[in-house]
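Severity: low
Component: inverse-folding endpoint
Summary: output formatting inconsistent between runs
Steps to reproduce: submit the following structure tokens with default settings.
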């Protein structure tokens, strides 16, 4: 139940149906992604439920800066794939101990993500309106 495999992503690799990516380098190491980037790991799971479980588990670890102490490298920090795997395994066992609380927290987190996305879109629209007003004032004849 909730099995996963982590691989280093390479261009042309055909992932399974249920997968996501994790950023492997830089200050945002551990951030889960829906689309691949040059410096990422591929996480493959056996079901959509397992994918969502691991995606949001990784998101929670990233948000709480859990990966930061595990970063190595002086110029561009990165994490070893085995270290990432161990972090996910430990977090998975803790989350599955009280699965009901995890699922409740996950639903709340997903709701906040949707609201944050909506607020970001609203801020972008306000910025566009401000530009239009200034353009009208300064450049309209």
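Observed output (run 2 of 3):
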């Amino acid at each position: 139940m909730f099995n996963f495999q982590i691989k280093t992503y390479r261009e042309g690799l055909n992932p399974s149906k249920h997968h996501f990516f994790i950023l492997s380098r830089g200050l945002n190491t551990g951030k889960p992604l829906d689309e691949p980037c040059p410096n990422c790991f591929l996480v493959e799971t056996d079901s959509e439920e397992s994918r969502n479980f691991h995606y949001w588990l990784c998101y929670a670890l990233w948000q709480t800066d859990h990966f930061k102490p595990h970063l190595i490298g002086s110029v561009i920090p990165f994490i070893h794939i085995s270290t990432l795997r161990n972090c996910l395994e430990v977090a998975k066992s803790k989350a599955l101990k009280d699965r009901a609380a995890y699922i409740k927290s996950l639903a709340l987190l997903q709701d906040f993500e949707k609201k944050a996305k909506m607020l970001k879109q609203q801020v972008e629209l306000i910025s566009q309106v401000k530009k239009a007003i200034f353009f009208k004032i300064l450049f309209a004849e």
